[in-house]
Amino acid sequence: MFSQYRTPVLCALVTAVLIGGSAPFTKLLIGGAGPLALAALVSLGSGSGALLFSLAGVFSGTRRNHVEAPLARSDLPWLIGVTLFGGLLAPVTLILSLPATPAATAALLLNFEAVATTLIAAAVFGEWVSRRIWVALGCITAACIVLTQDPSGGIGLSLAALGILLTCLFWAVDNNLGQRLSARDPLRVISVKGIGSGTVVLLLAFAAGEHLPDPPTAIAAMAIGFLCYGGLTSILFLLALRGIGAARAGSLLAVSPFFGVFFSLLLFAEVPAEGFYVALPVMALGAWLLVTEEHSHHHRHEATVHEHRHRHDDLHHDHAHEPGDPTLNGTGEHSHPHAHAGIVHEHPHQPDIHHRHLHRR
């Protein structure tokens, strides 16, 4: 797994670091702006940052249109879905829930996204999940239950905590819908998602009587949006989805609570409850099971024609170029419609865009 899938795994892990900082960094800004205005700035920061990156690539002569697959009309339903769930519902729900939730607790509750992403990937989209991953997710879920218990003996649930879990569910839907766009140019996807949802939420904020915060707070919110919510994190996560599928990429985000707790302790000087020391080894075991999972068996590739960013140095892209196809760039990466012949073989793989086959039970 660490050879062929090193890059997408690294993308998922860096995403986990950034997501870990989302709750504590955002909590620092609460009070300086209304919740809707703050959510709008977060989304606009992610989308506008991605747009600037895309424009920089065009003007620098990298010819992104020959490296990444463009959006197509058939992608519109998936774009609407990720904009609604990941760009609008998730950040608004999170920011409404954060004031009544300690930063460390919120960071740990966000770990539910990995579990929800995998459940949706398996139940709705038919993505195969091994017993090892189920065991890993069980460990992580058990650790989250311990970590979110009320130290006084209660069940540890509140409306704010349920709001965090609902946020995770929205992001899980976003992750699975985003896999259907993972072959497309991630910067264009994120630009549409962030700017579209941010504009809608900003209009709602104005309708609710909220005003934009002072410039330093607005800039900070947009920067956090790009780094931790939908800009850089979405770029990295879409690249991870492309390589290892929604279930695996989402599961790797299980390490984000470790970083969330670290940032929370650094910023708010919070001391974890006693349950933290019980849950820590359980969650670490689950994360280790996820990261080291391997999967190999004889599988069939049906003949197909599609387009996405690819190289010619793997098992599935040894095709010849036709007249009019783009030339290779310095990294050998490019994009154009290409055909795959039907084949049956065996090698270690993940449910990426070439391995969404059924499994015998």
Automatic annotation (TrEMBL):
It comes from the Archaea. Residues 9-148, 160-291 form the EamA domain. Residues 299-324 have a biased composition (Basic and acidic residues). InterPro entries: Diverse_Substrate_Transporter, EamA_dom, EmrE-like. It is found in: Cell membrane. The chain crosses the membrane at residues 32-55, 76-98, 104-126, 133-149, 155-173, 194-212, 218-240, 252-269, 275-291. Residues 299-339 are annotated as: Disordered. It is a multi-pass membrane protein. This is DMT family transporter. It comes from Methanoculleus caldifontis.
